[in-house]
Write a structure and sequence with these properties.
Blueprint: E1 2-6, H1 14-26, E2 32-36, H2 42-54, H3 58-79, H4 83-110, H5 115-122, H6 124-139, E3 144-146, E4 154-155, H7 166-182, E5 186-190, E6 193-196, E7 201-203, H8 209-219, E8 224-229, E9 247-248, E10 250-252, H9 253-261, H10 272-278, E11 282-286, E12 295-298, E13 310-323, H11 333-343, E14 348-353, E15 357-362, H12 368-376, E16 380-393, H13 403-411, E17 416-421, E18 427-433, H14 437-449, E19 458-459
Parallel strand pairs: 1-2, 1-8, 2-5, 3-5, 4-6, 8-11, 10-12
Antiparallel strand pairs: 6-7, 9-19, 11-12, 13-15, 13-16, 14-15, 16-18, 17-18
Bound molecules: adenosine-5'-diphosphate, aspartic acid and magnesium ion (MG).
Aspartic acid binds at residues 7-8, 37-38, 43, 125, 191-192, 206-209.
Length: 463
């Protein structure tokens, strides 16, 4: 059995959905379970409508929702021929949008948008796209079975970033999905959404469909997890930033995790863990070029002689510098600092320490004020925002000298606030100004990947 996950652009219109159905159809004998995202932009629109309602702009919220409804109707009319089915689904879509509009009205009246209502609204994108795709498959005589992810994806109640509960999700997924798979059905379900044990709708956080795919893959012991997206695979950098980026044929789970964690949007940062636990290869593929080979992410790829394999970056970083003479030769100081971050439920990304100072970075500044206030009780503190992390990743960095030298030479006059050689020794991260990201990534890309090194791991993109 395999998991086939389609991202938003891979189901964005009628043509994309036809391609997706073709991709499923070609792999029918491999017992696919299909996981789908909302059509491109739908989740953004839904979230934006909820926010507009909160600001009291119901007119604009309704206009955005109507346009989104029309997009879904148009797609439906173009992928399903059977008129009665189309009419019935249009009515169903209208009902769902009426529900959202009612919710928006309540938000506007109360002047309150809870994370719980936001999830109820945001989940609609996947619920609609999955309906269309299951119908499009049925139209091509594929035995599609639509299963609502909320019936098996059990999560905690951290609305807008809910964590799946592995054991109940695994048990329910096996009980609900396997009988269909075993009778030759092709399951279609939603990524990104789930429900608490009490049945309240949740979402796994933006970009979470990749994570859904790997959780389901691990639960069902899939042979492979395919992530179909709008680029040829995992590349040497985000091609939107470095247009010369090359596709990587194969990378390790560890490299993929680091890249995703440090901002490579092609995979949600949590995607790799369930795959690692069950040792299931993850393949990233381009739905616009379905016959290309994509990138294989596996436990132990063949050793390559490229020290650096890819560059990731992530903006919206805040650096916190903490200085105290009490730190000198003292124990317990770091733990008192970290307990403050724990108290405010804020994850720390990079840390670097000297005898009297600690610098660290966070990417969620929502509790920054309270954190700084608490830290000031024990040390001098400064916070710098609008920073970014750029990160070079590669397994072979461990045994290659001179990488740091090349990184610094390439960045030359760009101001580096902080450096961290990851404890895993497969990444090196630098904190720079957000405004310098594009230039830094391009320079690093030129240094390590242009012209294309004569290495077996790269594959030039044929256009
Ligand atoms: P989907 O909707 O299919 O999940 P995403 O937009 O979430 O797609 O992720 C794909 C995007 O990730 C690409 O269009 C690309 O701009 C971006 N990206 C960032 N870093 C990388 C990378 N190293 N390799 C490939 N794509 C990357
Ligand atoms: N539709 C969701 C989002 O836009 C989840 C995903 O696409 O992975 O964040
Ligand atoms: Mg994505």
């Amino acid at each position: 059995m395999i998991i086939i996950k389609f991202g938003g652009t891979s189901v964005e219109d009628a043509k994309a959905i036809s391609n997706a159905v073709e991709i499923i159809s070609r792999q029918r004998s491999r017992q696919p379970v299909v996981v789908v995202s909302a059509i491109a932009g739908a989740t953004n629109t839904l979230v934006s409508a909820a926010r507009l309602a909160l600001e009291g702009d119901l007119g604009k919220a309704t206009a955005e929702l109507n346009a989104l409804l029309e997009r879904h109707v148009l797609i439906l009319e173009n992928v399903v021929d059977d008129r009665p089915t189309v009419q019935q689904l249009i009515l169903e879509f209208r009902r769902r949008f009426d529900e959202i509009k009612n919710l928006c009205q309540a938000i506007a009246v109360l002047g309150e948008l809870t994370p719980r209502s936001l999830d109820a609204i945001a989940s609609v994108g996947e619920r609609l796209s999955s309906l269309i795709i299951a119908r499009a498959m049925a139209e091509r005589k594929l035995p599609a079975e639509l299963v609502d992810a909320r019936s098996f994806m059990v999560t905690d109640d951290h609305f807008t970033r809910a964590a799946p509960l592995v054991r109940p999700t695994g048990e329910k997924a096996r009980t609900l999905l396997l009988p269909h798979v075993n009778t030759g059905k092709i399951i279609v379900t939603q990524g990104y959404i789930g429900a608490t044990a009490a049945g309240v709708t949740t979402t796994l956080g933006r970009g979470g469909s990749d994570f859904s795919a790997s959780i389901i893959g691990a639960a069902l012991a899939a042979e492979e997890i395919q992530i179909w997206t709008d680029v040829d695979g995992v590349m040497t950098a985000d091609p939107r930033i470095a247009p010369a980026a090359k596709k990587l044929k194969v990378i390790s789970f560890r490299e993929a995790s680091e890249l995703a964690y440090f901002g490579a949007k092609v995979l949600h940062p949590s995607t790799i863990l369930p795959a690692v636990e069950k040792n299931i290869p993850v393949i990233v593929l381009n739905s616009r070029r379905p016959l290309a080979t994509g990138t294989r992410i596996v436990a132990d790829p063949p050793r390559s002689n490229a020290a650096v394999k890819s560059i990731a970056s992530k903006g919206g970083i805040t650096v916190i510098n903490i200085q105290s003479s009490r730190m000198l030769m003292a124990y317990g100081f770091l733990s008192s600092i970290f307990s403050i971050f724990q108290k405010h439920q804020t994850a720390v990304d990079l840390v670097s320490t000297s005898e009297v100072a600690v610098s660290l970075t966070i990417d969620n500044p929502s509790r920054l004020e309270q954190i700084v206030a608490d830290l000031k009780e024990v040390a001098e503190v400064t916070a710098l925002d609008k920073k970014a992390i750029v990160c070079v990743v590669g397994e072979q960095m461990r045994s290659t000298s001179g990488v740091a030298d090349r990184v610094f030479r390439a960045l030359n006059d760009i101001n580096v606030t902080m450096i961290s050689q990851g404890a895993s020794e497969i990444n090196m991260s630098l904190v720079i100004d957000e405004a310098d990201v594009t230039e830094s990534v391009r320079r690093l890309h030129r240094e390590f990947f242009e012209p294309v090194p004569e290495l077996e791991i790269f594959e030039a993109i044929e256009e």
